[in-house]
Amino acid sequence: xxxxxxxxxxxxxxxxxxxxxxxxxxxxxxxxxxxxxxxxxxxxxxxxxxxxxxxxxxxxxxxxxxxxxxxxxxxxxxxxxxxxxxxxxxxxxxxxxxxxxxxxxxxxxxxxxxxxxxxxxxxxxxxxxxxxxxxxxxxxxxxxxxxxxxxxxxxxxxxxxxxxxxxxxxxxxxxxxxxxxxxxxxxxxxxxxxxxxxxxxxxxxxxxxxxxxxxxxxxxxxxxxxxxxxxxxxxxxxxxxxxxxxxxxxxxxxxxxxxxxxxxxxxxxxxxxxxxxxxxxxxxxxxxxxxxxxxxxxxxxxxxxxxxxxxxxxxxxxxxxxxxxxxxxxxxxxxxxxxxxxxxxxxxxxxxxxxxxxxxxxxxxxxxxxxxxxxxxxxxxxxx
Length: 384
Known about the structure:
Layout: H1 14-29, H2 39-53, H3 73-84, H4 88-107, H5 110-122, E1 127-130, E2 146-150, E3 153-164, E4 171-177, E5 186-192, E6 198-203, E7 212-223, E8 227-228, H6 234-270, E9 272-273, E10 276-277, H7 282-310, H8 317-342, H9 352-363, H10 370-383
Parallel strand pairs: 1-4
Antiparallel strand pairs: 2-3, 3-7, 4-5, 5-8, 6-7, 9-10
């Protein structure tokens, strides 16, 4: 079982400690792992489980069915880490309810919050965040999906890709721009999945099963009251949402790393080589020491960033980027080392470390690649 002494750190209060233990008890007791050969169906099932258990209440504010008055990043991190220890897809399902509804929570009107957030909290609605395009991934400002006003509607045309929950979401937060361009041209709006002109054009299979696909908008008409914040504030909505949830990606990586470390420790204690336990060899001990240190260092950065955000600190962008960068990179190394320690057993499809080896790779890319995090951090340091 993963080390839980980090809960005694001053970043947390008793509410957080109780939450983590309750989620862990649910995970090890009531949680049902689902067949991920159909990622879309499995993700629907996980959203239902998480909603029924009450954990999705932590993804929305209290006025609309949430657990706290406002989003508590430490709670989001603790839940992602605890779920990630057991299931990358269940952790993903939880995370997307938060990220997909985050723009509404942080910037939306009260009417949008009333319309969408209660369903997200209950697991009866599935959220999605549609920003990436084939030529606009890390370069968000390069998006080409357009919006134009026509009477009381916004008409959207274009394509999005790499969209998590494509095909199963009940609504999408879509980012696009006015044709005239410029920094103030970006707009964010909520598009219901059954809106005429919106369709899923492709399902994308990736190395770790996730519901992922591409969307097409062809004369898609969205009412003006579905716009989030003011037209022209779309980039602020996007970056503000990512700024909050980026730390939680590091927490997911932390959950993966803790599981890999535990699997490696259990194996080297049991495995006998040349007449002694694998754990007795100094090279094994050095590997375990490196892994444990990487896990703790990641946890410190993740929960520092989460604590700062919850304290409304004036600077969180740099710390969130550091947390995401360090935790995802460290988890990749920890999991790779676990595979090495398990030897051939670590290569068997479906085993925990093999699954983790595939799952961790995406975390170094989505919500800002490692390289983008370095640019963000450097910019904050040089211009701070």
